[in-house]
Amino acid sequence: MTHPQQKFIDKFQKLRFRISFSAKESHILGELEVINDIKWVKRKIEDWEAGRVPDRIDLGTANRLWKQYSLVGLGMDEETMWELIDQTLEVGNKIAAIKLHRKFTGSGLREAKNVIDAREMKNKGLI
User: In this predicted structure, what is the pLDDT of residue 115?
Assistant: First the structure.
């Protein structure tokens, strides 16, 4: 097996672990979606072990899943993410806080806005 191919397999093994870990830790994700994602990653690992080459669509999907299931994939833990978001809210930049949340969690715009709105109200002591 070639060295670059082993790098892909290692990354996908980590991704598969993170998806299964995230499924245990978070009840936000739909169970069926998590199962499908794990199966997809497992198939890609099997493909690469058999010598089939990944394409750009595979790598794009992997990147989306990595962001969706792992803050660690972005080099940031959850506590640090919230500290950064809280600091951004303190200086009055709600749009930047929403963008940060989306970047770190892979969430959609509406979900991120709702989370940041709730966080802002909590920080102000309104809830």
Answer: 92
118 and 91 in a common domain: yes
Considering its fold, how many domains does the chain have in total?
Answer: 2
Structural domain range at position 91: 78-123
Nearest to 12 by CA among 107, 20, 108: 20
Q: 53-98 pLDDT, tens per residue?
A: 777 777 778 777 777 776 555 556 778 778 888 888 888 889 888 9
Q: Which residues of 45-72 are buried (b: 16+ CB within 10 A; e: fewer)?
A: bebbeeeeebeeebeeebeebbbbbbbe
Q: What is the DSSP string of 24-40?
A: HH-SSS-HHHHHHHHHH
> Is the whole-model pTM more than 0.70?
no
Q: How far apart are CA 65 and CA 81, in angstroms?
A: 18
